[in-house]
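hey
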């Protein structure tokens, strides 16, 4: 599960070019790559690697007309812990991002999460539609599943509401507070709220980040089947990412 708000630089999903004022020249098409590592992979506050480190990387293409596509992957442990046979998550996404009013940016798209060779009885592969509005430093985003949500049976139509902000502190430093709420259809115990605050430093494309991440998730539902540890506990997560 892709960690969009939790780690500022190591978990960004579809990154399109910023909108420009009408009198500025249109940006050129761009292709970028990223590789990184995190001390643990959290997605919407829930641990995906049994609170262990993960390797991650992706490719993004942004067209000058606002359309974008990309792919991103991370090592995971939760599929194998649940009796399956997938050690990697692969995400593919695409959408459109543009300024629709002065200072107001719209971002809409599709995101497919895939766990190749998972062998679970209920497929963890998940397709979500998303839409986001950004104004100044603040972004509100809603994601809606059109399939079962990450292997939870009969959970089609689940939704995630995300509110975050990015504050430029100068000298390559940024601060990103976040709060989100995951609603899981027909499984009340799986619904929860997550929160995080991330401080990141950009060293000319090499980003070091530190995040405090926590949830109010049900400790029984989100316990590791391997060691019983709560995957939504409050933790400090460190990440390093290089974009080129």
């Amino acid at each position: 599960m892709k960690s969009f708000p939790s780690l500022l630089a190591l978990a960004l999903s579809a990154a399109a070019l910023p909108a420009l004022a009408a009198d500025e020249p249109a940006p050129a098409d761009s292709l970028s790559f990223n590789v990184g590592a995190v001390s643990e992979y959290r997605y919407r506050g829930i641990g995906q690697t049994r609170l262990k480190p993960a390797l991650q990387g992706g490719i993004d293409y942004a067209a000058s007309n606002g359309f974008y596509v990309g792919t991103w992957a991370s090592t995971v442990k939760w599929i194998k812990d649940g009796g399956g046979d997938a050690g990697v998550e692969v995400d593919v996404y695409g959408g459109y991002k543009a300024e629709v009013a002065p200072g107001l940016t719209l971002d809409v798209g599709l995101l497919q999460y895939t766990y190749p060779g998972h062998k679970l009885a209920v497929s963890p592969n998940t397709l979500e539609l998303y839409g986001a509005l950004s104004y100044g430093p603040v972004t509100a985003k809603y994601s809606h599943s059109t399939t079962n949500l990450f292997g939870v049976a009969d959970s089609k139509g689940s939704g995630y509401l995300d509110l975050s902000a990015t504050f430029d502190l100068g000298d390559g430093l940024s601060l990103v507070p976040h709060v989100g709420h995951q609603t899981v259809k027909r499984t009340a115990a799986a619904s929860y709220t997550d929160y995080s605050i991330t401080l990141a430093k950009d060293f000319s494309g090499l980003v070091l980040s530190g995040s405090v991440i926590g949830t109010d998730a049900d400790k029984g539902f989100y316990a590791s089947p391997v060691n019983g540890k709560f995957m939504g506990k409050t933790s400090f997560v460190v990440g390093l990412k290089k974009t080129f």
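Confidence is low (pLDDT under 50) at residues 2-24. The helical segments are 78-81.
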